[in-house]
Design a protein that fits this description.
By secondary structure, the chain is mainly α. It has 21 helices and no strands. The chain has one domain.
Length: 435
């Protein structure tokens, strides 16, 4: 019976992967998978009414509540950095520091973008900063594929350390319920290293592809996509704002929400938006509204993904008989599988926690072989290296590709090989440190 059920689940799983790889809607995919996996779990005796009514339909989606607030506040910070002109000012100063040297400017902008997205979050922030960074790179003669890849890989590099991304995936995998002791303070020890590794790989990519370029153009003469943002000049002491959450969380042990709120209000006060209560209130309302709108599609996705993940956790027991002998049971072998199989994270495939990966995670975790800190990081690293940094299924990646008018093929052929190398190195370091 269990073997037959596992075969049905595997067939639906493969159908889901194919559907997503062909560009299907991920949210609808999880709804359809839930409609299969819940009845099958009932048939196999793993899901009863109490489990369905309580754990799957109520507890699992409700558990994303705290992380929803974190996602909102991360998106809010991104909008505040754009509204106050802090982002454009930092970028302008960075470009001035690099002068008219394309390689140096590209490296500095990559470092800066990475640092910003260690705390900022949301498509709005990625696009808002991208319309400033990308025209600068293009005006310096940086090839479109290289400019696009370096920017998006830099966004991805920051996400390894981003507390919002950690909280999002903690909710998706139900770890805040099943493993509450696994917190961001535990994860950040490996996340910060992964950020550094991918940033180094980006620099190597730029040196390899731009090292021989001689073209000099005045960088800030590049037309920015957002004239309002580019024209603002924030005070020098306000430029601490995008880095403040990381500093407070990592070095002063603040919780995420107060750290982000401190950065938001620090930015608003230092940039003169608190001259009157009305002005401050209007700015808060506008940036908060834009941040919530930016994050709304993700929240809907997390809601249904949480329902499906809860059902998958119940059904994972069926795979023990069919896949138990196939799934690696040593950390070394699992590391090798993920390192070699990194391409399976593309198109939100089975190794990407931003796609079909939560199902794979549930199946592997159900074996009870691997510690959560290792297993989570393996999936997190692979998902960021693929879905976030080098795949065309990520919304802001699609925007950047359209903005620079580079082909999807050229973008992926430029970005993914380097992301693959970064993931291999990150997985190797992870195995040495905690594997």
């Amino acid at each position: 019976m269990n073997v037959a059920i596992s075969v049905i689940l595997l067939i639906s799983y493969l159908a889901f992967v194919i559907y997503i790889m062909k560009g299907g809607n991920l949210l609808m995919g999880f709804i359809m998978m839930s409609c299969v996996w819940i009845p099958v779990g009932v048939l196999g005796g793993q899901i009863d009414w109490a489990t369905f009514n309580g754990n799957i339909m109520q507890t699992a989606p409700s558990n994303i509540g705290g992380n929803v607030v974190l996602i909102f506040i991360g998106s809010w910070l991104g909008q505040v950095l754009l509204k106050t002109g802090i982002a454009s000012t930092i970028i302008r100063k960075t470009v001035e520091l690099g002068g008219d040297k394309p390689l140096l400017v590209a490296i500095l902008l990559s470092v800066l973008t990475t640092l910003i997205f260690c705390s900022a979050y949301g498509a709005g922030a990625v696009i808002g900063i991208g319309v400033i960074v990308l025209p600068i790179l293009l005006s310096l003669g940086v090839p479109k594929a290289v400019a696009t890849a370096s920017y998006l890989m830099s966004v991805g590099a920051g996400m390894y350390t981003n507390a919002v991304i950690f909280g999002e995936k903690q909710a998706v995998l139900l770890l805040n319920e099943t493993n509450p002791e696994y917190t961001y303070q535990v994860y950040k020890q490996v996340g910060m290293v992964a950020t550094g590794v991918q940033l180094v790989i980006i620099v190597l990519m730029l040196v390899t592809m731009l090292g021989k370029k001689k073209k000099n153009v005045h960088a800030w003469a590049a037309p920015a996509g957002d004239a309002e943002a580019a024209s603002k000049d924030a005070p020098f002491y306000a430029l601490l704002a995008p880095f403040l959450p990381v500093i407070l969380i990592i070095f002063f042990k603040w919780n995420s929400l107060p750290a982000f709120l401190a950065a938001i209000f620090y930015a608003l006060f230092t940039c003169g938006y608190a001259k009157s209560f009305n002005n401050l209130g209007d700015t808060i309302n506008r940036t908060l509204y834009d941040g919530i709108m930016d994050a709304a599609p993700l929240i809907g996705f997390l809601f249904f993904q949480g329902i499906f993940t809860a059902a998958a956790n119940c059904d994972a027991v069926f795979f023990k008989e069919t896949l138990g002998a196939i799934i690696p049971t040593s950390t070394l072998l699992l590391t090798i599988v993920f390192a070699i199989g990194t391409p399976l994270g593309l198109f939100r495939g089975p190794l990407s926690v931003f796609g079909v990966g939560p199902v794979t995670f549930a199946v592997i975790n159900s074996l009870g072989v691997f510690e959560i800190p290792f297993l989570f990081a393996v999936f997190q690293f692979t998902g960021i290296a693929t879905t976030i940094s080098s795949c065309v299924t990520q919304s802001w990646n699609i925007w950047a590709i359209n903005y620079t008018k580079v082909s999807t093929k050229d973008f992926m052929l430029t970005a993914f090989p380097w992301c693959w190398v970064a993931n291999i190195i990150n997985l190797a370091i992870l195995f040495v440190r905690i594997g």
